[in-house]
């Protein structure tokens, strides 16, 4: 009877029956704990767990799964560490927690521990690990994991296949993502959405459109996530008309009412294209309030296209909406600085300090022989820092002599001397990562960088020049999209 109530989510009735039981076995305790965990009543689940006279592995795993659902890494790890014994379900729960909470390095380290104690990975294991590789852009680790899947005959079903597609797309290997997708026997809507989204972040609009067509021909109905991916593809390709037409036909042709995310994609598209008035008009006609992401896209457009008056208005609105979001303060401060309103820029940064808000540092990572190396601007913590900075000096000297490069100091939005601005630009994190790649990677290997923030225009320009002067392919994944640099050109066509 308890099990029936739990399956229907009627925990109140289940608790009444449980409390009236004269003799409770471990199964009834586990059923209640699992039920509370499923409905998100983690405190009730923990209370019963602590009261249990005798626990088995199912009890521990049910409690662990409940903590994972709540997303509290410390609680999950604490309970995981206390477990008297663990099975593959326990390890998978811990891995899933790390993957979901943006701790990919911890997930990969835990996998090594898991294998060291002789626990054989299963489908959920590899799905969590592929997610971690995708987050890091760790292609080598992802390739090894794919080999492990094949060698151990783990079925590449729609779930594992989709995770592989996502990993390869986010690691910059869209060709391998396409190969895996084409080889999948069963493709659900999630698989189609994943490959379309992969094409979007690489700026491949035509390929995304072709996949969208094939998806419909295969009898798979697009959903709201499909249209987010398609609109993102239009945005990254700068195709304004296509994006607006797609938004307009969502409800009329597909019966899907656009959500705030869909409007946000088109606002982003219009703002990047410099059509700020049109973006404002769309915000005014939306049937719902714009979310911070949509307003943030508009603010970014104001910064790129120099509309400081509108930028100030939108920036202040965003800070009121998200007073703890450092990026909103930084962008407004940068807008003031670009307009040479240094006092206003300082006021915004002082407001950050008063509110206890810290700027998110720009971080660039590069994978080399399975090791992920992390760099921040002006970083000297790497054991090879001396060699890296020597290489960086060589790069700048070579670019100046070969092409006449000079730093775009408009990107340094601080009131300082020109020479100091040039130095600040010279040591941006992606430049350090590229220098490290040039030091260690074979000349035929692509240099792959993942950055957590948008690449500035000077770093973008320098990377194009490096690709030409050094004859290297450089692939950078920033916060917005992929940039494939080769022979002095970028796949984004300077639209990002």
TrEMBL record:
<dbReference type="InterPro" id="IPR002885">
    <property type="entry name" value="PPR_rpt"/>
</dbReference>
<dbReference type="InterPro" id="IPR046849">
    <property type="entry name" value="E2_motif"/>
</dbReference>
<feature type="repeat" description="PPR">
    <location>
        <begin position="87"/>
        <end position="121"/>
    </location>
</feature>
<feature type="domain" description="DYW">
    <location>
        <begin position="404"/>
        <end position="496"/>
    </location>
</feature>
<dbReference type="GO" id="GO:0009451">
    <property type="term" value="P:RNA modification"/>
</dbReference>
<dbReference type="InterPro" id="IPR046848">
    <property type="entry name" value="E_motif"/>
</dbReference>
<dbReference type="GO" id="GO:0003723">
    <property type="term" value="F:RNA binding"/>
</dbReference>
<feature type="repeat" description="PPR">
    <location>
        <begin position="25"/>
        <end position="59"/>
    </location>
</feature>
<dbReference type="InterPro" id="IPR046960">
    <property type="entry name" value="PPR_At4g14850-like_plant"/>
</dbReference>
<dbReference type="Pfam" id="PF14432">
    <property type="entry name" value="DYW_deaminase"/>
</dbReference>
<dbReference type="GO" id="GO:0008270">
    <property type="term" value="F:zinc ion binding"/>
</dbReference>
<dbReference type="Pfam" id="PF13041">
    <property type="entry name" value="PPR_2"/>
</dbReference>
<dbReference type="Pfam" id="PF01535">
    <property type="entry name" value="PPR"/>
</dbReference>
<dbReference type="Pfam" id="PF20430">
    <property type="entry name" value="Eplus_motif"/>
</dbReference>
<dbReference type="Pfam" id="PF20431">
    <property type="entry name" value="E_motif"/>
</dbReference>
<dbReference type="InterPro" id="IPR011990">
    <property type="entry name" value="TPR-like_helical_dom_sf"/>
</dbReference>
<keyword id="KW-0677">Repeat</keyword>
<feature type="repeat" description="PPR">
    <location>
        <begin position="223"/>
        <end position="258"/>
    </location>
</feature>
<dbReference type="InterPro" id="IPR032867">
    <property type="entry name" value="DYW_dom"/>
</dbReference>
<feature type="repeat" description="PPR">
    <location>
        <begin position="188"/>
        <end position="222"/>
    </location>
</feature>
<comment type="similarity">
    <text>Belongs to the PPR family. PCMP-H subfamily.</text>
</comment>
<protein>
    <recommendedName>
        <fullName>DYW domain-containing protein</fullName>
    </recommendedName>
</protein>
